[in-house]
Fold these 4 entries.
Entry 1:
Amino acid sequence: MKNQQPPDWHLPQRQSASGLLIILYKAVITFVKAIWPVLVIILFRESSNKSGYLQVLVAVIGIIVLVSSLVNFYYFRFFIQQDDMVFRKGLINKKIITIPLKNIQAVHIEQTWMHQLFKIARVKIDTAGSDKAEATIDAIAIDKASMLRTYLMENEKMDSNDITKPVVTPLISLSIADVIKMGLTANHIQTFFIILAFTMSMYQNLEDIFGNIINRMLEESSSLITFTTSVLLSLAVFVLVISIVVSLLRMALLYFNFQLSGAEKGFRIRSGLTSIRQNLVPFSKIQYISWKANWVRRKLNIYVLEFHQANVEENKKTQKALVPVLNNVAFEKLVAPYHPEIFQGEHSEHQIHRAYALRRLFIIGLPLGLAFTSLAWIFIPYYAFSFLLWLPIIYFSSMVFQKIYRLYINDDALQIYSGIWGREIQLLQWYKIQKIGLHQSPWQRKNNIANIVLYTAGGHIRIPYIDLDLANEIKNYALYKIESSQKNWL
Amino acid sequence: MIFQNSTIDMALLPKAEEVELTPIEKDYLKVMRLEWLLISGILLLASGFLVFIVPPFQTFPGYIFIIAAFILIIVFYYILQTLAFKKRAYALREKDIIYQNGIIIQQTSICPFNRIQNSSVSTGPFERKYGLATLHLFTAGTSGADLHIKGLKESDAQSIKEWIAKKTADEEPATA
């Protein structure tokens, strides 16, 4: 291990030279993604005379993309000026981004396979603000990256600097068998729909290019097969196998080599098959915790836990801190730093109102059921009434939901246990709440029932159909806890 | 008591539901009406254009359909505005702000001052005509966690904003 001198961060730094390859690779990928249908046309319709123009167009776009990414690479600088991290970008469109060091929440280091090849990394700087996507260094030598992180985390007062220290205890590390277990127990129906959506969009793209050829080919080949039971059965098995294989791949991408270790002030998560992701989760940034299992995983006691952190956009999957939990010992250590599960101490227990199922049937079941049925009546009159099955499905699933739903409350936190087939548990400390909403429909007003929405910086939690008295007490108690708490929610 | 295990007496906690709410300024209804006029005007132009480019709408049953749709939409919008106006009310407490709105589903939102990240006051052209303003309160919460209170007197909005700023500044030493 060479002990390299850290560079002077106050001098403007460029990205690593070998990073140029990565930036070119990125440019090529975006280019190809944007215009691949045109490329296919060029490759397959050489006979057409017009393709000459197309080729010129493609070449021009390609050159523009190439030049602009080269210029961007050449003019990119980052440095530290007084108490700010500064990024300077662009030639024509000059852009200077200044991030106060004290606003830096976390520094992520990522490596794709290309980064690994050249021993460089991508550094993402996570701030309390919103435009954090801008604060990314695409290519920097790996040892420089970790020195930069150490420097940035030392220079701010955040508690999170402790997580970067090497004294960490591994809590969870997944073996290949565990990853396979996660893959086999994944929700294959969901995977199937993802594949379906993907195939449809591919089909559409191909149809745009080749016109009716694909359609005719499909029709010809399908007319050769007579739909006997055995054909249908083998088709079903084929779909199932494909779904399972894709589920396995998805889980491998997410959880291969997954490692979670804990330090004094936070967790460190490392995972990835093709690219290594590192994610730091400071305890103070966790707003609430939830853990979920589908029906199969619940039977095997496998849960996927999520730390809902402040300022992580809800829909950004890559930044989510997801942790597969395959045994109970590790589980307790994950939850305890935030707040231990509420069942373990003194608590009160509450349910949602029994009218929930009937109201759901009335509000969601009936309008949609009737709409589907009447739509189906136009196209397939004989089968239309089968859409009315929607009504009992909504009713009984809502009934099961109401029967299982539990709300546990103690002095410091609340916990929600819910699910129809699978289970989801949410655990929230009172003082992490940002805003409280109490919603009532006219029917709920008449019957003294209310919905409560608790907004946090990591997403919101909804509690439906509880007694108005309980809702008011939750509201008043939460306000009391927020307003009297000396603890910082971040 | 519903919270059996609480170390504090729930009955002693301030009750947000018992606070008397102040309705927003009456003049704001006029602002809403001006907005209604503007939207109706735009809609009228749009339907005129539709009649102009789609020939079937120029003959007998066609234009009846367009006129009926136009009237239905603007009347519905007018009623919706009236209802929405009546439902909006707010209250300031020592440590939080309460805002109520919602035409069918009544929504009460409460935002503690020590969770407000920043606040601002804005005035649109119609609002300025009547000396009204909108108060925006931003929390760190994700979507839907911010509060926008329309139809305040501009001076009221400013003083509430300053009051909250003072409150959050007072809190600062405790949280740092």
Entry 2:
Amino acid sequence: MAKNLKLKSARAIKDMSQQALAEAVGVSRQTISAIEKGDYNPTINLCIAICKVLDKTLDELFWEE
Amino acid sequence: MKIIGDTHDLLNDSGLDEMQKAYAYNLAFKCFKAMYCIMFVISFVMVMLAVAVEESVIFAVTALVIELLINMIYIIFGIKSSKIGAINPMFSKYMARPGTIVGYVILGVVYSCHYFRDGELFGIVAGIYMIILVATFIILGAISKKNNKIINQAEDEET
């Protein structure tokens, strides 16, 4: 699975650490790290929660072109 | 299914998020598979040794109890999995065939008659071992039928 750089950059734009994002969506920091590294495929519920916190759409963060 | 209450041990999943649970459950499945295979082989070897040595009744009874317990857990796993049609489709198709179930019934009758024939204690132990094994397969056949029914229902609802 490829790295999710879109998530990483969206998080950086919002000036959020992995820990802050993790707390906002109710998961551990390791999970956010694993998603960014492409080691974990999140559930749709978690994707939506991340999108809401980062003010992005699912396509913007999780659609591979 | 909550078997044991919340405890501070490795098998307590409270506090884990979805990724941690996904990984832990995946590992637990593999560990369960390994443990089942190991315990099955141990119980089989213990019964064979008990039959060959013909000395230890406790040895044989322990093997039977182990086999019974692991098969019970295996069946519970099958029942729970079949409720959502999560049994391996190749396995469930094979096990649900009428020929397979009839075959196992015949096998059970033949083996138990063979072992019980002499009426010796260790023949009886081996016979009971085979009956447990065959009964497990027959129950798995029934569980597989249910699993296939759930899958077919889902396909019907889709169309």
Entry 3:
Amino acid sequence: MKDTLSRRTFVQAMAVGAAAVAAAGALSGCMEPKKADVGKPSTEADAQASAPSDGKVPGTTATHVDLTGADVYNTMCHGCIAACPVRAYVKDGVVVKLEGHPEAPLSAGSLCLKGMNQLHTLYSPRRVLYPMRRTGAKGADNAAFERISWEEAIDECAERIADIMEQHGTYSFFSSAGGGGSYVGAMLPPLLSGMFMAPTGFEPGAAQCWMPRNATAAFMYGGADQSTADSSVLETFKGLSKADKEAGIKNDMNCLVIWGTQPSASQTSQAGRGLAEVRALGCKTIVVDPNFSPDAAHATIHLPVRPGSDAALILAWYRMIFEEELYDKEFTKYFTNLPCLINPDTKLPWLATEVFDDYEPVTPEDTPVYVCVNEMTGEVEPLPFGDPAELSAALDPQVFATATVNGKESKSAGQIYKDEAEPWTLQRAEEFCWVPAERIREAVELYTAPAKEGKCAGITHGVATDQMEIASQAPLGLLGLDMIMGYVNKPGAALTQSTMGGPMGPQLDGTNQWGKCAADGTQPRPTKGYLAQLQYGYTVGATEAANQERVAQSDPSALAVYGKLWTDRLGLSNHRGLSAWGHSHIPAVREAIETGEPYRPRIWVELSGNKLAMLASSGAWYKAAMENVDYVVGQQPIFTSFHIELADIFFPTEEWLEHPHSRTGQLNYTFANPGIVHLGESVNPMHPWMLLADAVSAKLNERLDSVVFTGTGQTISELGLTFPLFKLGDRGNSDTTCWKMELTGVGAQLGLGEDATIDDYMAKLRNNSDAYYVSTPSEDYWTYGQHLVKATDGLPLGFATESRKCEVYCTTMLKLGRTGWPYCYPTAFEEPVDSRIGTFGGDYSPICRVPLQTEAPEVKGADGYTLPFDKDFPLAITSGRVPYFHHGTMRHAPYARELFPVPFIRINPETAAKYGISDGDWVEVSSRRTQGSDYDVSKRGTERSYAGEKTQTTKVSDPIRTIAYVSEVVAPNVVWMERFWNPECFDKSQKTKTGGWQECSVNVLTNGIDAQFNEVFGSYNYRAFAVNIKKSERPDRVWVTPKEFEPFMPTSENQVHDEIGVLMGNKDLVTDYYQFATADAPAQG
Amino acid sequence: MKRAMVMDLDRCTGCQSCIVACKFENNSGLGNYRCDIVDVGPYGTHPDIQMYWLPFQCQQCENAPCIEVCPTGASYRDPDNGVVLIGDQECIGCMTCLAACPFSDNAGAARPSARWFNEERNVVEKCTLCNHLTAKSDGVENPADSLDEAHAVPPCVHNCPTKCRHFGDLDDAASEASQMLAQAKAEGRPTYTLASDEAQATFVYILSESTAPWNGMGEWRSLVAKG
């Protein structure tokens, strides 16, 4: 059996000997150093061990955790997405200690504070362990809930959902998810909604995180993206594990550019550890970050780019690399599309068959022949794909060229890029990006130096640019840089086809999952399928006939409905890159909720943490949801602001020590990953939506004559369909099945068969130090040169793009903006994207450009690149991770909060002085969201932002407050703070309660309303917008000093408050959520 | 015997995981700290700045003044391994040792402080090098069993995300701490101890000039927010 234990038992087990809870009272103010100052070299003097003078050893009361008789389980942390292997010590059924697993190839025994603090979140007094139904009005102040059974919860929920859908049509349903180690991920909302024939689903962990980089990498070369956090760039960590060392494999990372990411703060014991190791091995690092992050502090060169100006800095790199001919000429000529001459009308490469009447392609139908200027002849000639050694005898493609083709002056793609970069001299970049020109030069020299010796550098590109206007421009630029340098599929490169790269990963037939190629001549040309459910979508690299044949497998009626969902998805008419993960545009969803146009989503199934703290412009979201959403379903291990304010029904889910997780492994090691304990009636986070999918479908199927598919106005009967629209594999709904689904991988590792029970798993895992293994031998795991292997057609494999080359000039961006291809197939958008949105002459830009920044500080030379400077908001604000939390998690972890009680705002001393702010002062932070915007609200936001037209909107929130951290870590006029929410604001001890999302949360200020959303992905402004600051006072309710967090500790007292009352559901059913503290505690488990 | 830690500041990123590891291991409760991280710097003017993070706790002084001044004999050295400890049954919370310690706040109540006054228990607490785990350890961890008393290391060392912390007997050349120190010397990286007058701190800090110039504990700022 899984051990089912209460928090009380946890407290008893933890506290051996004297209770060790104490504090030295409130601490404040600075303390002068006493005697310690600048030190001296260490002495070699011997220790003088001395026993106590009277020879008696003083007595000590043990306060440490007692592990006598404890069992040890190997599992994996899910405090973030890194998943570090962990040992959990379990005593009397209680997890009493966590530590890193020493055999972990990357984290190597370490475990960061997020992982360790799971002991407190697991046994938190804030856990809600039973399904809950709201009994009073929405809102935090007088929130009241009652316990209900799972059966009742699911049935009631399904009934309400079916009723509303029957009344308002299928598009009234919407779902969302969110990041966080053990929670439901980004891929689910479009699936859950799609099953109910509703198009709306989202999570910020898409357009705002990873998807732009991930999708752009797929478009440009069909390979893994540049994200380290998402386990795409792993080459950095080669040679660190025991298996690698035993295989004699060494690290090859010469130089790593760390752009807009801070692994040491976000994945501290995994990527942070790896970076510490490779820096010690001599790898040079260049960190591009407005903040002096831990990785910046340890960097060879730090480029503190002005928030939001990264695209200009990237173009300055291109300019210098082109100008000084630092790029890899052979790779650029033969394996990128930069030499292709571009048709100025279509902006697509000329095909040889369009230019030369009698041209017979020398390559198969799936591999087009383009044209270029041949440097040997000076003529426009066919540019076939092929082995450079064979082609170069007669063809030297000119990268930078202009020629007349079919009577039209046509530039090469390389020339177009060069022209775009031309204005961005190092001097101009210094003015625009606030980075010294000389320092940019040093960085480019460091990055390009390995190429001169035939070696590699690489760029790892983080989340920062996904959260600004430049969400597509930055990955276009940074992927392209590695490509023109030839830093592809080589030791020491970030760009490889050797990792899966997540859901959009490369598909190389005939390789193992790590891209190890089969022998020459046995693999077909690589393809990349952009496929959703029901065979919808296009496989790039396959012929049109092959694609038609594939989609013909699906029921045409279902496929038509599914295609309609795709093109009706909110915001996709503008931002078609959201198709990458099938998501709606988040600001467009909020507007549709507000206005009912083009349809109103009114049933919200929310599967993550705290949407009121994590969505941009949270005040607008709060208002929209309060006023216009009819029914809200939430799930989480605790009540967050979202649940206490909005949820009508709540499903309790497990923390990561309670459930098995399918995301196992670090590099080529796989670890068993069981649930170890279990509390209350909490369930795997994947469980409730499965139950709902079936229960809602069943109820809808009783009303097929009256439920209308909003997309066409027809009833489901008329369409000849039933719910769900599609099925997701062989899933089941019982607890055991859910366990099994997640345990499939674990079971295989342990040698357990299909019929194994949970007891079998636990028995196998208890005190088993071998419950992990190396799944792929190191020599098969680190693989290179995939594009050079000979394919079945005799050509090199190349890449999974139309051209079979690295598309530095990304043609897919152009086609995506015109029809939605390659996602929208066989249906398509009838109109191209609004010409005000596409910045490349009405199209999505295929190259890195500097887009318009909505809100910026006063910048020299910014005309045309920023909207007019607003002196009411003169400071640029940006954000980044801190090691204490992952996304919105763990604000109820007391050992995290005592160290980081509020989201300190980093302010440069010069700026602080100007505003009369000292270190440690409370500061009010405001933005246009707290004052009112000057954009035209008569137009819907997704349009008005592009026009930049001005009128005044009402404010959506009050300003926030936090504490100043005055330091040189940021530039003057730049401030920095991380997301936050304050669960203490609805603690029972508070006289008046709020949801805790208004007090300190930067997302009150962020711009998800009228920003210049990224053209392709619709990404809004979590970062790089404008604020003002002034000295202020501590807000009500917010806790700051360590002892204030005592109610978050799993103490006996808290246990009492938790085990009784409505939260635990064993008292009268209708009870005020806040009035459960005084009753007697019942016996539990 | 000279049990101590060797800290590689070229690795530390100030994540504070050591603080939390310590608090869980020793059930410290809120507001009590035996182990801390001091931000030293940044020095210079943006963008020309440098800083390091200093993992900080009782420095296991060779001539520990806390032992000399303790009126009840509560402060003592483990007779077997020389670790400086406090017997809380003898400690009367008089705070004399706090004043004598070169690295402590006189009230043991403001971070960072090597010794901390636990108000509820009315005793002074500090880092014990987790002697309850490590008393007989050689400082070379057994990957298969971190509770192996012949090899255990403190959890702040075991869990340190960047492998900044190295524990062991500096008089034993085979210990992890000695090995790290020897490696740093071979690499030509400078080593430092915190200045402590006659007390003679034993913890060794490794810090390259390229990371930042050594400045001890710096001009430390309050590590706790204003309320």
Entry 4:
Amino acid sequence: MSGHAPKSIGSLSFGLMDPEEYRDMSATKVITADTYDDDGFPIDMGLMDPRLGVIDPGLECKTCGKHSGSCNGHFGHIELAAPVIHVGFSKLIRRLLRGTCRECSRLTLDENERQEFRDRLDRTRELGDDLNDVTKAAIRQARKKDYCPHCGAVQYDINHEKPTTYYEVKQVLSSEYPQRIAAAMEPDEEDDEPVSPHDLADETGIDAGRIQEILSGEFRPREEDRQAIEKALDVDLTEEDMDKLMPSDIRDWFEDIPDEDLEVLGIDPEKSRPEWMILTVLPVPPVTARPSITLDNGQRSEDDLTHKLVDIIRINQRFMENREAGAPQLIIEDLWELLQYHVTTFMDNEISGTPPARHRSGRPLKTLSQRLKGKEGRFRGSLSGKRVNFSARTVISPDPTLSLNEVGVPDRVAKEMTQTMNVTERNLEEARRYVRNGPEGHPGANYVRRPDNRRLKVTEKNCEELAEKVKPGWEVSRHLVDGDIVIFNRQPSLHRMSIMAHEVVVMPYKTFRLNTVVCPPYNADFDGDEMNMHALQNEEARAEARVLMRVQEQMLSPRFGENIIGAIQDHISATYLLTHTNPTFNETQALDLLRATSVDELPEPDGHEDDGTEYWTGRSIFSELLPDGLDLEFTSSADDTVVIEDGQHVEGTIDEDAVGAFGGEIVDTIAKQYDRTRARIFINEVGTLAIRTIMHFGFSIGIDDESIPPEAQEQVDEAIENAYARVEELIETYERGELESLPGRTVDETLEMKIMQTLGKARDSAGDIAEDHFDDDNPAVIMADSGARGSMLNLTQMAGAVGQQAVRGERINRGYENRTLSHYRQNDLSADAHGFVEHSYREGLEPKEFFFHAMGGREGLVDTAVRTSKSGYLQRRLINALSELETQYDGTVRDTSDTIVQFEFGEDGTSPVEVSSSMDEDAVDVEDITERILDEEFADETEKQQFLGTEKRPTNLSEHADDWWLAEGDD
Amino acid sequence: MVDVSQHELVPDHTVLDSDELEDVLAEYDIKKTDLPKIKRTDPALPDEAEVGDVIKVERDSRTTDRAVVYRLVIE
């Protein structure tokens, strides 16, 4: 770093470039289409001229004298034999052609109109709106004029044939004029007299002999004669003629457009003269922008841009030769068009209507525009997204012994990723130890940097020797060690919790290890997911990551303002088991449950067994994890009231609503009322306690857990039988034509709805019957009840009946003519013919049922696939639209042009993660905050009252005030 | 015709006079054109509002009781 202070950019302006400027900045004119001669040296004034920059290491640039790497390269130029149109500006060229006079080149608007558009332009500029709307309107207005308001010349319409050809559409005398006149002279109706040539001569005032000559086609009538005949006979003698405008004509035209007319169109004539849109000189990019590569066999392979430039120069030369030799106009025009094609494809090779220029192999060339556009282009691929060093990626796996702030890093990753240590007198020994361990031993070092900036690689061989040389002032690139902070990320990074900072714990084996409670924010599971890690490279970054990005700081989601980290899955089953029936544990058991937590002493026992042994209840064991002074009351998802008084869990079941991720009450309250550190400790300990608990009770699920007794199965069958009977009834009513349609529905729709309803009820009652026969300690019921995983519906489908399968929200209605499968009669409306699955998953599905089930299942899969891609693109657009908004120090939200978007962030200036998440409480309880701060601030109530009270302490000037002092002192 | 400005979901829209406007512009250190915009044809606007006027919108808020927002009338 050379110590330059950063500077801010004052302004940027974009405009067209003057061809003279191209020539001035050019290092050389390029006239030869070849690159290297037979000896392999670049040809002078060729495309690889050494003055255009160097790419081979060791050579010196002929223009600036620098070597490859430091020389950025220099532009050259090609003098085009004839002007060509720049494709990028074809629309603007068309607009100017349409809006200006073909004779005097002035904008065909009168002074009033000009003033109007100038004013509109100023206003839009002030409002920061799109100027194009105004200039487009100005052109539309100017185009309406048939005559120039300045010189009176007739204006023709301009036709634009994409991409680069322009025509003037003129009305000229048709070649069939004698026939048209003759036809018009014939009578309109049978009995009418035809118009004689004499009559025509009289009416038009043209000599009769001349009329004869015109009629025989020997004489072409002049403009005014044509109009006279057209008027007399009410006939149109003209046809459209397309007059091609050559680029040189357009250039001449644009050169004459006065500066003040351009200003009306929003063009700054100082920066951009319109004639500069017609190229006379073509800049040749430096060789550094189009380096040639040497293949394995020693052959040189040129860049696509160089290939294109070769084409341009070849045609340019041929054009000049042909013109000097006096070639016919037709040949010249062909060459001109060819030159135009090559220059066009040099800039953009994906223009519709033009065949793309191809490589010899048939691959389309990647020219200038293709280098910039799209996902892999310069903007999105190279500038917004770059590949980085100090990053690692591998598979993730769970480790419940880690804290949620930690990440297990494989030792082989830790040995590759380094942190820079500035050696001082105080850490000299430590630094030497790292270097002495070398690159292979674990807390080792890979590089050292001497004060003279020489970087030395630490090897197995030189590490001992190098360790002795390390002195204060050196830098040591040491391995990652436990406690280092790194950034951890899982794609897709959809919210800010997708990238969080973790503390390193170096571990053996090859995977990143993380605590399962951080799965929800990353949306990670362990079915093969991979994650990325980034080692931070300076102290500022490390400090920021620690303070702002650590997992515990990201615990509350700004999306819904509650915790996104908390107990999941078996943690929840476990806390449910521990607290639902409030079981008791003897001393050994209680200590075993708490042994992995920081609790190392049991509370007073809750009671004594008959034989006198002490016992503890599940709730009091859970209470050990709660912070003192926590008071809370809420309803759990197991539907009982949880009461916590002064950090003691008195009543209720601890389940998903209490400790779960996505808004567990206790976690959320601790994170907000205490702090994130307390909440982190709590979640970690709930995790470890839960795992001990579930190991104590044992928790498994199998097919037998979903089976129901035979009498229950009979009830289920009966319920489904009944539903079938009711469906049959409905169908009979319908067939008799007696079914009454519901409002707004046809009879057919009504029938479908009623059948669906009946079958839906059948499944639900099957589920209810099954549920009645399950015990409360059934693992599937426990999971559904506690909110750990699965729902009652899942249980219904496993034990009762799978129920109606649907595609697009209707019963299955597709397949063959008037039936779903050939196993059914046509137009069979019954339940089983339209995808009702009467069996449960446990019983197993019939082949037909299985087929319908697959149809419904397929729809689900397609839906998720479509939804993710759709919402991904939607999110990309939203992020791009909002990315520049920023909350300023005055609380307003503004965009980059300082336009206000919100007067106060979120209209209330509060952070969603700091306000209360309850709906009936105030978002910000000001009185509570005042109370708490005052309590903190003052040692006792009197001091506080003195501060709050309006009465001032009397100045103790005389002993008469002693009474007051004694009263205050309270003694 | 329904007068939407009387609807309970439509917050109060009032035209700022020049003194108030100056205060607002000074408070946020902005030009009039940096304000959010509202179309002249917006049915919630009071009838006397003209292009170039600044409208004060006072709406109810769960978190702050009252949120005040200003908008510039454009055509």
